[in-house]
Design a protein that fits this description.
Elements: H1 11-14, E1 23-26, H2 36-45, E2 50-53, H3 65-69, E3 73-78, H4 85-93, E4 97-100, H5 103-115, E5 119-122, E6 136-139, E7 142-148, E8 152-163, E9 168-169, H6 178-184, E10 185-196, E11 215-218
Parallel strand pairs: 1-2, 1-8, 2-3, 3-4, 8-10, 10-11
Antiparallel strand pairs: 5-7, 6-7, 8-9
C-alpha cells in the first residue's frame, strides 16, 4: 500500500495498529453486508476489551458471534440482539456491558460522527430508559433527547466493489450501516468482493468516496443466510 493505492493483501496489514480496548464499528445488518474475513481476522488476532458498535452481534458461531466466544467485546453498542444466545448470557451475567440504542438513533449517531456533528436532538426515547441521564429540551412544544455522536478508532465495512483509491460501491441491502460507518472511523478498512482500477467505477454510483477509506482488501464471503425457512414438497 503506497500513495493513493490503498490495497493491502493480508489481513495482518489490514488490521495493523488495532489494539486492545479500542472502539470498533462493524458494518452489516444481521448477517447481510458484514465484513466476514475482517471479523475472523480480529478473532484470530485475539484483540480484547473492545467497544463494539454494530446494529447486532451476529449469530452463535458466525459474524460477531465469534468475538463473543473469546470474550473480546467489553461493551456492545447496538440495536437488535435477538439472534444470539451467548450474547444474552454474557449480558445477564455482567460479563459484557450492553448499550441498547433505537435503530434510527444509532444510525444517526454514526452518521453525525462521520459528519463532524457532536450531538443532535431526537424525540425517540424521550420518557424511557434511553433518555436517562441525558439532556432533554422542548422544541415547538415537543420533548427531545440530546444524543451524542459516535466515532470509532477502526471501522470494518464490507463493500461490493472498490477501486484501488478506496472508492466504494455497496450492493442493495448490503449497503445498510456500511457507508455511515465508513465515514465515522479514524481508520476505515473495506473488505470487498472486487477491486478495479481508478476510473472503472461510474462516479455517479460511488456511495463512499475514497477519502474516508484507508485500507482495502479483497475477501471471500460465505454470505450465510441468517434464517432459512423452507416448506416441504
Amino acid at each position: 500500500m503506497s500513495g493513493f493505492n490503498k490495497v493491502v493483501t493480508t489481513y495482518d496489514e489490514a488490521l495493523a495498529g488495532l489494539q486492545d480496548d479500542m472502539t470498533v464499528m462493524v458494518g452489516g445488518f444481521g448477517l447481510c453486508g458484514i465484513p466476514e474475513g475482517l471479523i475472523k481476522a480480529v478473532y484470530d488476532k485475539g484483540t480484547k476489551g473492545l467497544t463494539c458498535i454494530s446494529n447486532n452481534a451476529g449469530v452463535d458461531g458466525f459474524g460477531l458471534g465469534i468475538w463473543l466466544e473469546k470474550r473480546q467485546i467489553k461493551t456492545m453498542i447496538g440495536s437488535y440482539v435477538g439472534e444470539n444466545e451467548l450474547f444474552e448470557k454474557l449480558f445477564l451475567s455482567g460479563e459484557m456491558e450492553v448499550i441498547l440504542t433505537p435503530q434510527g438513533t444509532l444510525a444517526e449517531k454514526i452518521r453525525a460522527g462521520g459528519a463532524g456533528i457532536p450531538a443532535f436532538f431526537t424525540a425517540t426515547g424521550f420518557g424511557t430508559k434511553v433518555a436517562e441521564g441525558k439532556e432533554t429540551r422542548q422544541f415547538d412544544g415537543r420533548d427531545y433527547v440530546l444524543e451524542p455522536a459516535l466515532t470509532a478508532d477502526y471501522s470494518l465495512v464490507k463493500a461490493w466493489k472498490a477501486d484501488t483509491m478506496g472508492n466504494l460501491i455497496f450492493r442493495k441491502t448490503a449497503r445498510n450501516f456500511n457507508p455511515m460507518m465508513a465515514a465515522a472511523g479514524k481508520i476505515t478498512i473495506a473488505e470487498v468482493e472486487e477491486i478495479v482500477q481508478p476510473g472503472e467505477l461510474d462516479p455517479d454510483q460511488i456511495h463512499t468516496p475514497g477519502i474516508y477509506v484507508q485500507r482495502v482488501i479483497k475477501g471471500k464471503f460465505e454470505k450465510r443466510i441468517e434464517q432459512r425457512t423452507v416448506r416441504s414438497a
